[in-house]
Amino acid sequence: MKLQPSHVLDVSLLTSAIRFAFRMTAAGSLCLLAPSVFAQAAAGHAPADLGSMIVEAEGQSELQSSDSYQAERASTAMRFSLTPRETPQSLSVITRAQLEDFNLTSALDALESTPGISVERVETDRTYFTARGFDITNFQYDGLGAPMMYKNLQGDIDTAIYDRVEVLRGANGLLSGTGNPSATVNFIRKRPTREYQASASGTLGSWDQRRLVVDVSGPLGSADRVRGRLVAAAENTDSYLDRLQRESRTVYGVVEFDLTDRTMLTAGHSWQQVNTDSPMWGALPLYYTDGSATDYDASTSTSADWAYWDNTDNRTFVEVSHLFANGWEGKAALNYLDVSSDSALFYQYGTPDRQTGLGLFAYPSLYEFDVEQLIADLHVKGPFAMAGREHELVAGLQWSRSTLEDRSDYGVGIGTPLPPLDQWNGQYPLPAFTASQDGSDWTDRQTGVYSAARLSLTDRLTGILGGRLSRFEGDGVTYGTSKDTSHSDVFTPYAGLIFDLNDQMSLYASYAEIFQPQTEVDASRDRLEPIEGVQYELGIKAELFTGRADASLAVFRIEQDNVAQPSGTIPGTIDTAYVGAKGLVSEGVEATLAGELLPNLQASLGYTYVDIENPDGQRARTFIPRHMVRAMSTYRLPFHDAMKVGARLSWQEAIYRDQGAGVTTRQDDYALLDLMASYDISQNLSASLNLNNVTDEKYLTSLYWAQGYYGAPRHAMLTLGWKY
């Protein structure tokens, strides 16, 4: 039965009331609170005792079992260090235990295990992500990030250097500057430890996979006032896809200095290089000229044997944090990002004939890409007393500059007929790339002032009021068209309420307005107007099994205007043109459970339902599954605790894509099952075996684009790990 809007969340009466009340009170309330609280912090007057409140640096790992699938605290929502139950939005955390148990060495693998997230693998080295029906455009690192300029990830992100990954579903305009209603993905870097520790692991897998990871941490010198950590990872592998080979190298170093007992300086740098030979630019045609579906071998690739796609990622960060005597904390952070790509690519376009397989044509190109981002954040947070109760406040300034330069050098011979794909062996003469040249050079700047107050209204009721005032500017050109844009005094508010039913269970409601500048262009290459709208979320959260697990059930409604929708190609090119869709509405339900459900049994379970409709009430973005299940679990055998076994399940409902001219491409519902087993050989040595896609399911990785390719068949990995 279709879930009607009234069955999910009736917000017609709430919309105008909440919006009016919040706009009239939020900004004024925060402005009234901030001066008195800042004066209190500066004067050093101690606020009322807040009992068990813990002030900690963002990004620091909580002390928990090495097997734990439960998130202790997260700060992605609004810089407050909150438990999942204290966060009035749907939240999932991929812990270090989950990453290691299922050998989730890439961000793509990790996010494919996260409730509510769809990983749109449109090509082998370029990926989009969606949640709640919309593109995820905000990746953060220790809480700092700027929107992706092309809304996709080139290459991959190695998880070896991260402690965990926090995923906050819904809008997060307070810290990101934009109210994208999909999700914010926050990668929390590993930090130095005060005790010496070291680990190393080696993996051998299918398709000649070889991987080595080393992680060393501890004090530098006789005392622990200076601490460091070094992580290095290297991987070489072939692929189930014809001709594709990949090697990646990752190095991360970070140092912490205790300048005083209350002031800490942290500086770090990470470098990652992912080089791919014979990558896919574009993918396989999904239908023949008669409209029937193609069905190639899972290993089929359109790439040429000379093609390559090399991606390099450099990230540098510096932080200074200070804990004031009255419990307030101040922090200044600066992040620098430089991501570059160098590639020679081969694209196949056209529609093949079912009988002959002919009808595909060559499109070779060189492509260079470079993005630089500089992001600065200065904020303070801490407790304050008002009306006889204790509260918390955070206030900050944020600035970012993002510059993109890319260039396409098109090859001679575009339009050359190609043999059928079932006879394609990648052999195509390397052309001269002198047919024509085009590219982009533009800069986006963002400045924001934000604040949020966490108010103890009664013993059981907590309110959160927040808002951000932002300015966006962009200038430059992309493929001959101006990218100039400017938006001033953009206010994105946030409000939440949490009511404790008892010591284990809470009800919550949250409201956020949405503002999202877009990089997509129309058929004239004019930049689309920003997305605007609202998001509502209601839910219940609980701490179960004496606090060892967290459960949540949420319903949401998102109303958006001017969402970019593909509308064909830009005349004379293969580039996608977009139009702004009016009145797009997304509604859904999310349910999660994570933690220790029984002694020795760790689990993370999630179910998502999402329905996206256009103004005519028709289903929109049909490449996103309505129903989706993500589950993983491990069990340490009580009669032999050196042994641990587990399983991971990913299931989604059927999806489809209207290709035009009466042709529809469909991917039936499918489930992927992975199994794992690990054995502690000694206190320091362990071995683990991972078997993925046990049933050897054949499936298309995405219908986000008009083309697609097949996911990996059954494969295995054997890992030997050492820890000290």
Account of the 3D structure:
The chain has about 725 residues and is mainly beta. The protein is about 5% helix and about 55% strand. It is built from 5 helices and 35 strands. It has helices at about 5-10, 10-45, 95-100, 105-110, 175; strands at about 90-95, 115-120, 125-130, 135, 140, 155, 160-170, 185-190, 195-205, 210-220, 225-235, 245-260, 265-275, 310-325, 330-350, 360-385, 390-410, 435-455, 460-480, 480, 485-500, 505-515, 530-545, 550-560, 565-570, 575-580, 585-600, 600-615, 625-635, 645-650, 655-660, 665, 670-680, 685-690, 715-724. The strands form 5 sheets. The protein has a 22-stranded antiparallel barrel. A 4-stranded mixed sheet has the order 1-7-8-5. Strands 2, 3, 4 and 6 form a 4-stranded antiparallel sheet that branches. Strand 16 and strand 17 form a beta hairpin. The protein is globular, with a radius of gyration of 25 Å. It starts with a helix and ends with a strand. Mean pLDDT is about 90; it is low at about 1-65.
Attribute tags:
globular; 22-stranded antiparallel β-barrel; 7% helix; 35 strands; 724 residues; mainly beta
Task: Give the arrangement of secondary structure elements.
Blueprint: H1 5-8, H2 12-43, E1 91-94, H3 96-101, H4 107-111, E2 117-120, E3 126-131, E4 134-135, E5 138-141, E6 153-154, E7 162-169, H5 173-176, E8 183-189, E9 197-205, E10 209-219, E11 226-237, E12 245-258, E13 263-277, E14 308-323, E15 329-350, E16 360-386, E17 389-410, E18 436-456, E19 461-478, E20 481-482, E21 485-500, E22 505-516, E23 531-544, E24 549-561, E25 563-569, E26 576-581, E27 584-598, E28 601-613, E29 627-636, E30 643-652, E31 655-660, E32 663-667, E33 670-680, E34 685-692, E35 715-723
Parallel strand pairs: 5-8
Antiparallel strand pairs: 1-7, 2-3, 3-4, 3-6, 7-8, 9-10, 9-35, 10-11, 11-12, 12-13, 13-14, 14-15, 15-16, 16-17, 17-18, 18-19, 19-20, 19-21, 21-22, 22-23, 23-24, 24-27, 25-26, 27-28, 28-29, 29-30, 30-33, 31-32, 33-34, 34-35
